[in-house]
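Student: I would love a firmer grasp of how sequence relates to backbone shape in proteins. I am handing you a single protein, as its sequence and its fold in token form. I am told such tokens are a discrete way to write the fold. I hope you can help me see how the letters and the tokens relate. Take your time, and here it is.
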Amino acid sequence: MSKHTITAIATAVVPQQGSISIVRVSGEQAIAIAQRLFHTPGKQPWKSHSILYGYIRHPQTQELIDEALLLIMQAPRSYTKEDIVEFHCHGGIIPVQRVLQLTLELGARLAQPGEFTLRAFLNGRLDLTQAESVAELVKAGSNQAAQIALAGLEGKLGRPIVQLRHDCLDILAEIEARIDFEEDLPPLDVDLMQQQLRDVLTKVIEILSTADKGQLLRNGLKVAIVGRPNVGKSSLLNAWSRCDRAIVTDLPGTTRDVVESQLVVEGIPIQVLDTAGIRDTSDRVEQIGVERSRQAAEGADLVLLTIDAQIGWTPEDTVIYEQVKHRPVILVINKIDLLINHFPTYPETITTTVTTAAISSQGIDALEQAIVHLAQANQITAANLEFALNQRQAEALTRARLALLQVQETIDAGHPLDFWTIDLRSAIQALGEITGEEVTESVLERIFSRFCIGK
């Protein structure tokens, strides 16, 4: 990787909003660039891990660009283990863009997505699991997702993976020693070797079990509320989100498009989609809304099929159910407070039902519990997760598990020692890919390309 000094805006740029914007510069020329741009009144010492007050001026014309603060972090005590300076400017667009442009004119180049964190990894400050946790912390949609990211940043995932790899390396060393110096060493204790392999495999399987739960907490659920017009879908969304996100009237077909709301239920981020009532209609605009409703249901992780308790199950509900029954479905029997006749019947294939009176927020807690129960069928709560694998890590650890199983099969089959080492090396390679001890440039590019510029 190029060791050029890099620069980027490290905060969101919002027009006419935001109190502070930060331009981050990392590399050999970072402090020199800051000294050309930043002017401090009085006698303020330029020392590491200090904050200076002053003015940013154009290096040639001395035009005043902004009143700002300058943060100095000298190598190796910085995020990238390189010299870093940060210009803390006024928010908005113009000041921060002008400062960025001046750093570029003075020799820095614009950072690639995730390049600051990539340098932290390449310079040994972070392992790859910690680097990925940085991006996950930025994107966290719930407190639990943030806690998992922080745990990864603290090394709670990386450390056990490193230890497992070292255990495999120790086993490999024992086997190779017997191959190279068989006559000078006592016979290999095969029973002990198998026990050591079983211990490693048990730990691998234990860590691997966090993958599905981790994906749930990171990515959340997409939940679509579907049903006939005027069954209370929008009222349900408003009651659930505790704000008026959707228009509620007595007129069928009021919702013409998909309305979204972001919620967090017991640590699980949930994207709720209130869809247009599904029915046959000659209204072209409503037809578009109905088609979008079907698409939303098709792409949802969970469907809340909503019916009117007063009217009960209708042939139209059957048509809708046939379209969504391949997805997990919760039947929401709404307007239960207005029910006068007997409780409505519904298909026996629907196993999860909730009764609600959305207009008065009745039944919302029961609905949330039903969703959580389906989402967490294994009954593992978020609080029980100390860390969780992401998809890339889970794929690599799965390869490690399969390789370790193959080693056991090779031993049981009585194959020579050098056969044992083949799959053991594969397991070591896979474990090293997780922490970055063995990783290709293309993998790094794929990981860090998903980061934002400035991080």
